[in-house]
Specification:
Layout lengths: L2 H9 L3 E5 L4 H12 L3 E6 L8 H4 L7 E4 L5 H11 L3 E4 L6 H6 L1 H25 L6 E5 L26 H19 L12 E7 L2 E2 L9 H10 L4 E2 L6 E3 L1 E2 L1 H16 L6 E4 L6 E3 H12 L5 E2 L18 H7 L7 H16 L4 H13 L1
Helix pairs in contact: 4-6, 6-7, 10-12, 12-13
């Protein structure tokens, strides 16, 4: 079987809950699972941007979509009880570093207490359900590590967690919450209810079609270019492990599947590209301009009082490769090319559901 068929054989007919399903990653993941025949439900705020990939794909009509806040425990618990998920992907978050400096309290409430609320809802649900949750994946970030910005250092899973800014730090806390629930409630020696497998995935920077967020490099490139402006790159010298959004989503699906079948695979995993694909923001902008063609160019200028963001960040992905036999499929040049193709199709008013399905199948097959 090819990769799509392998995943389909597991997810077909499974009840899958995604928190944050209206976001960029959540929309791609929802579409992938629908194509695999899963019964997909989502719990999230309204789509965070206009336009939004969630709306462009018509997902509100093709899955069970509940608009709610993960900070609202009563609502979230009731929804978990209603949809009775087999598998849960936790993506709901305040995901922007710069926004976390503006709204730190809200960032911590969402990223930390949102995780607590979901895991507690699952704990209570599993205590009495005949159809318990079997697999949970909490998606965090590569920014959870204490980062001294040592050149050529790639973070490994066992290194200290201590993100600098409120977003990164709150995701570090979300990791610790997950580890505590796993040891206290979701282990063989904890309680009498069915024990789900639970892992965390620390993903690097993702690019791909359908991202319209503020303060992310590719959406900024697309907006500036389509509006006839020169692209403004805030920090062209910062190094990041860029990957196409389908790379980590494939790994998330694999982790959640495998830990259901083999409980000893649960844990924490770095999910990032090979070292050759950890490039500077300026190099990424160069690749965008080359693929977009006429009308695209970029410049940079120093920002006064800009908030701190790490200049150097790489991940060691040895563990996920060894445990799951994974390796990246699209390197950064292919990732940028496929991303630009998606936005060109969007600009030309193509059928974006058909185009997105085509990219998913090309990636998985």
């Amino acid at each position: 079987m090819n990769t799509f068929e392998t995943l389909q054989s597991f997810y077909k007919g499974k009840r899958v809950l995604i928190t944050g399903h209206t976001g960029f990653k959540g929309s791609w993941l929802s579409q992938m699972l629908l194509m695999m025949g899963a019964e997909v439900s989502g719990y999230s705020l309204q789509p965070p941007t206009e336009p939004a990939l969630f709306t462009l794909l018509g997902l509100e009509k093709r899955m069970q979509s509940e608009i709610g806040d993960v900070r609202d425990y009563v609502h979230l618990q009731a929804y978990v009880n209603q949809v009775k998920p087999d598998v849960v992907f936790h993506l709901a978050a305040q995901p922007i570093v710069r926004t976390s400096y503006e709204f730190p309290r809200e960032t911590y409430e969402t990223n930390v207490m949102g995780t607590v609320n979901l895991l507690e809802a699952i704990r209570i649900y599993n205590h009495s359900s005949a159809q318990p949750v079997r697999s949970i994946l909490n998606v965090t970030t590569d920014k959870v590590y204490e980062n001294p910005e040592l050149e050529n250092h790639a973070f490994r899973e066992e290194e200290k967690l201590d993100g600098f800014d409120p977003y990164s730090n709150s995701k570090s806390c979300s990791e610790l919450v997950t580890h505590s629930y796993q040891k206290s409630f979701f282990s063989a020696s904890s309680e009498k209810e069915f024990v789900p497998s639970i892992s965390t995935a620390r993903a690097g920077n993702v690019i791909g079609g359908g991202d319209f967020a503020k303060d992310r490099i590719i959406p900024d490139c697309v907006r500036d270019t389509m509006d006839g402006r020169m692209i403004h790159v805030r920090n062209p010298y910062s190094t990041r492990p860029y990957q196409h959004v389908l790379e980590p989503l494939y790994v998330y699906l694999t982790i959640a599947m495998q830990q259901t079948l083999e409980k000893n695979t649960q844990g924490c995993y770095n999910v990032g590209p090979d070292e050759c694909d950890a490039i500077t923001t300026g190099e990424l902008a160069d690749r965008f301009v080359a693929n977009w063609g006429e009308g695209a160019c970029w410049h940079t200028e120093a920002e006064a009082n800009a908030p701190h963001e790490a200049n150097y960040l790489k991940l060691d992905t040895t563990k996920v490769k060894q445990v799951f036999g994974w390796k990246p499929r699209w390197h950064v040049d292919e990732a940028v090319r496929e991303t630009v193709l998606w936005y060109h199709a969007f600009a030309e008013k193509e059928d974006m559901l058909a185009f997105t399905e085509k990219q998913i199948l090309e990636f998985l097959r």
